[in-house]
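Review form for a predicted model. The reviewer records the input and the model, then writes brief findings.
Reviewer: anonymous (R2)
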Amino acid sequence: MNIRAFQPADESAVVALWKECKLTRPWNDPHKDIARKLVVQSELFLVGTVDNEVMASVMAGYEGHRGWVNYLAVASRFRGQGHARALMQHVEALLLERGCPKVSLLVRNSNRAALDFYRHLGYAQDESVSLGKRLIAD
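Model under review:
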């Protein structure tokens, strides 16, 4: 897998990947999420490719207090080969270069496979409750 920065030509492939991995929700327009990311730390929006085919993605950010990871996805036919781990190691290194002391992410509690994956990478459940408020409706 080659890891590189997202390019605008990747958009349709990335959205299809997110849909395949069941990461999209009706209240989040993935095209708008991509557009928003491209104006804020776009260098932390990465894709993985094999033979120039987008088969993985990860979106990260750092706001000075902690880093965040979103949209980690690997196409089903490429799973179990270490690609998700490689993407996380890559994005963690980029965050560490920026002085990021902690990385946080959200996982739906029904997604047991993702929870197990992140725990295997050393992530643990924080003693906090995630709250959210939509400011712009998609």
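Findings: The chain has a mean pLDDT of 96.
Further findings: The radius of gyration is 14 Å.
Recommendation: see findings above.
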